[in-house]
Amino acid sequence: MRSGNDGLLVILAPQAVTNPATVAKQLTKRKRSTGKPIIAGDLPATARVEVAGKVNRVRSEGREMLTEAESKNILAAYGIPTVPTEVALSVEEAIEIA
Do 44 and 76 contact (CB within 8 A), yes or no? Predict the structure, then answer.
């Protein structure tokens, strides 16, 4: 893990070539080497396509990090509650949202 991180949230979206046991073993090794908390979960099948599409879009844009809104959408796909967030692209939109 990069320095400056407090922990790691791993969302497993298994595919045909994914071995969840191998992933768990690697996460255990990482936990031991960093001492930082690691939280892992499995993505419900119904949300896998949605999340994969969002992650692929971010990667195709050459980005390595999600925006706050993108992160919250992915957490919502897992059923993890977050505070409501809306993105305004102009002053007028911000006034309308407020």
Answer: no
Which SS3 state, helix, strand or coil, does residue 19 take?
coil
Q: How far apart are alpha carbons 63 and 47 in whole angstroms?
A: 22
Domain count, the chain: 1
Element (H, E) at 29: helix 20-34
Tokens at 50, concatenated = 């949605």
Report the candidate in 42, 44, 34, 41 with the shortest Cα–Cα distance to residue 5.
34
**pLDDT tens track, the chain, 98 positions:** 556 778 878 777 667 777 778 888 888 887 777 778 887 777 677 777 788 888 889 999 999 889 888 889 888 887 788 888 888 999 999 999 98
Q: What single letter denotes the amino acid at residue 14? A: P
Q: How far apart are CA 19 and CA 16, in angstroms?
A: 8
Q: Which helix (H) or strand (E) holds 24?
A: helix 20-34
Does 80 fall in a domain? yes
